[in-house]
Amino acid sequence: MIPELSNPSVCMRDPQRVQEILQSMQKAGSNTLQVISDFDMTLTRFAYNGKRCPTCHSKYELDVVGFSYIFHVYIILCSSFADILDNSKLISNDCKEQLKELLNTYYPIEIDSTRSVEEKLPLMVEWWTKAHELLVQEKIKKDMLEVAVRESEAMLREGYQLFFNHLYEHSIPLLIFSAGIGDILEEVIRQAGVFHSNVKVFSNYMDFDETGLLKAFKGELIHIYNKREGALLNTGHFQELRTRPNVLLMGDSLGDLNMADGVQDMENILKIGYLNDKVEERKQSYLDSYDIVLVEDETLEVPNAVLLYLTGNK
Fold first, then answer.
1. Known catalytic residue: 40?
2. Cβ–Cβ < 8 Å for 156, 115
């Protein structure tokens, strides 16, 4: 067993099953491996020195059942466009207020357990579409994104250099799926110096006009209900992944488990889940769904140890 799997932050429902998956994946070789990961709160820190870190999504207070709590919205609309851009003052106060109104209207629908996905979907798309329209009206400048990220406190998890560099050195594809904004996500990775050629990002991208002003969002909307590899199987990139039937999946929500749904002829999948908060109420559901659960762990120590094992470096 990998020593790091004995860390205090590690929880596993079936350690023996984890060991079997690891041995099978290692035997198959690193040339059969691909890594599929969420971005916010998975590759980035949830908190640092007791303070919540900014994300590519937004964080707002919402009154629910008489009390107020801070929640992280896994959707593309970003009520302040993003914590990063919010802090940079690229979004007007009026826009923030309108986006917050949308949030208060539609978020209760998203978390309503009495509604089916089929019932929620058109309302969610309506929400995100309205949010995009508001953001386009802000005429955000492309050249300000780099500055906004640089001045933010966005942080990749400790150990990110080894994670990104090791995958690159072994030519292992890293597919990052995000319902956030790809332009911001890529800039965070680029400024960290680890945006290698093996990294493929699937997210929502801004479309700028010839003067560098935001005019629209590109392509098909990526949201919490289609953030998965299966939604993109028709693209040429996925043909080359058919020879990589072993998957290391990393996420921080139960919804992230669907990201590998489209992998064809899968042989093995090892699922690592970050349980960042509300530990007691969510721990069992994570243990039932993820093979390895990392509780309030702000590092990539365990994923790195797994990768070193799978590539024969440990």
1. yes
2. no
Q: For the chain, which residues make up each domain, given as ranges?
A: 3-47+156-311, 56-151
Could you tell me the two tokens for 32? 């059969």
| pLDDT tops 90 at residue 109 | no
Question: Residue 304 pLDDT > 90, yes or no?
Answer: yes
Q: Give the CATH fold of the 56-151 domain.
A: DNA polymerase; domain 1 (1.10.150)
CATH code for the part of the protein at 3-47+156-311: 3.40.50.1000
Question: Which helix (DSSP H) or strand (DSSP E) does residue 232 occupy?
Answer: none
Structure letter (DSSP) for residue 313: -
Residue 115 Cα distances to 118, 121, 234, angstroms: 8, 10, 30
If phi > 0 it is left, if psi is from -120 to 50 it is alpha, else beta; for residue 66 that is left
Q: Which residue out of 38, 86, 256, 291 is catalytically annotated?
A: 38
pTM value is 0.83
Catalytic residue among 40, 86, 183, 297: 40
What would the pLDDT profile of 125-151 be if each residue is shown by its tens digit? 888 788 888 888 988 889 888 888 887
- Is 277 assigned a catalytic role? no
3-state secondary structure of 182: helix
- Residue 108 sits at φ, ψ, to 5 deg, of -60, -30
Q: If 0-12 CB within 10 Å is exposed, 13-18 middle and 19+ buried, where does residue 128 land?
A: buried
pLDDT digits (tens, 9 = 90+) for 50-60: 444 444 444 33
